[in-house]
Amino acid sequence: MLNSKMDSTKLMNIVCMISNITFLLIHITYIILFLITKAYILAYINIFSSIFYGFMFLLLKFKKHEIFALLCGIEITAYMICATIIVGYKCGFQLCLIGLCTLAFVTKYFLKDRKLVINPIIVSAFFLTAYIFLFIWQKFNDPIIEIPDYMTSLLYLSHSIIVFIFCVGFLIILVEYVFKLEIKIRKESEVDKLTQIANRKALNDYYDRLGNQKANYVVAMFDIDSFKKFNDINGHLCGDYVLKEIASIAKNNSLNDFVSRWGGEEFVIISKIEDDLENTYKKIDLIRETIDKYEFRYNNKKLHSTITIGIAVFDNDESLDAWISRADKQLYKGKKNGKNKTIY
């Protein structure tokens, strides 16, 4: 979760920085347009807004994203209301209030833990109220400043495009981030937290994916011999250490196979049959031999561990549990006959 939080903070910083640069460039463009059309009141207002967004870079430098979003929302709302009153409804400044609704929801998602972030439904209701107010205002009041028709049309088209780009852009960012987060969560849900190999859920999914190819596979179940002694003599952290080391050895020696933790000190391997069954058995038995020769070290103490393996070839259309159960019976034979063996 920490990595997810760091990723969202980094993404929010990029989004805020791009938004701030965009807002600044828009207001500088407004200054030029309104100076050309001699709408000096709006030109002066845009100079103030440009200075405002210049100062916003300082907030972003210290990663004050929630304050940035709040102040930007206030500035944009105030500006759009003033601009609509001054030059009229036909210029489309009020359309930007619709885009702010999208920004409110995106901000709430990425900054949900921040106290200053207001509920986006409340924010949207406020923008809707402002939108309706401006609609009613223009019905009973003429614009304070008349600007040429070509500029009115240009501004309305520009604002429509800006709102469209912002809405789509913010939604793309949100959807892409959620998709990546879903993939990450799905992967994490299929990994055993302690050993960092596949868990039982991932094993079931892998079994289902094999489909009709199961006849070409064997399942091996192995159990750590006398595992309880590690917990009893050296503590549960020692037991965890042994589990992680053995999981790593099994994984590294089964690069083309599916290795998962079944539960406790039991592990399951689904392996594709090589040239013949004998070679496949030898390949799996190599894991047992490697662990038998491996020097475990915990708190500068040398430890020795072994495993017993039971192997079963897939039979007809049996379920995963039935398949593993037959391998488990082979494993049990190995335990009964002295442990540290591979039985098939």
Walk me through what this model shows.
By secondary structure, the protein is α+β, with helices and mostly antiparallel strands. It has 2 domains: 2-189, no CATH class; 200-343, 2-Layer Sandwich (Alpha-Beta Plaits), CATH 3.30.70.270. Helices cover 66% and strands 10% of the residues. It has helices at 2-36, 40-61, 65-87, 96-110, 120-140, 149-189, 200-210, 228-234, 236-252, 277-293, 320-336; strands at residues 217-224, 258-263, 266-272, 296-298, 301-303, 307-313, 342-343. The strands form 2 sheets. The protein has a 5-stranded mixed beta sheet with strand order 2-3-1-6-7, sandwiched between helices. A two-stranded antiparallel sheet has the order 4-5. α3 (65-87) runs antiparallel to α4. The longest helix has 41 residues, at 149-189. The chain is elongated and about 100 Å long. 28% of the residues are buried. Mean pLDDT is 91; it is low at 1-6.
Global morphology: elongated
What class do helices, strands and sheet pairing give?
A: alpha+beta
Give the amount of beta strand, in percent.
Answer: 5-15%
C-alpha Rg, in Å? 33 Å
Number of domains: 2
Residues in helix, %: 55-70%
CA-to-CA gap between the ends?
Answer: 43 Å
Strand runs, count? 7
Number of helices: 11
Low-confidence segments, given as residue ranges, are 1-6
Strand ordering within the main sheet: 2-3-1-6-7
Characterize the biggest β-sheet.
5 strands, mixed
Average pLDDT reading: 91
What oligomeric state is this?
A: single chain
Q: What letter string, H or E per element, gives the SSE order?
A: HHHHHHHEHHEEHEEEHE
Task: Summarize this entry quickly.
The protein has helices at residues 2-36, 40-61, 65-87, 96-110, 120-140, 149-189, 200-210, 228-234, 236-252, 277-293, 320-336, and strands spanning 217-224, 258-263, 266-272, 296-298, 301-303, 307-313, 342-343. With 344 residues, it is an alpha+beta fold. It has two domains: 2-189, no CATH class; 200-343, Alpha-Beta Plaits (2-Layer Sandwich).
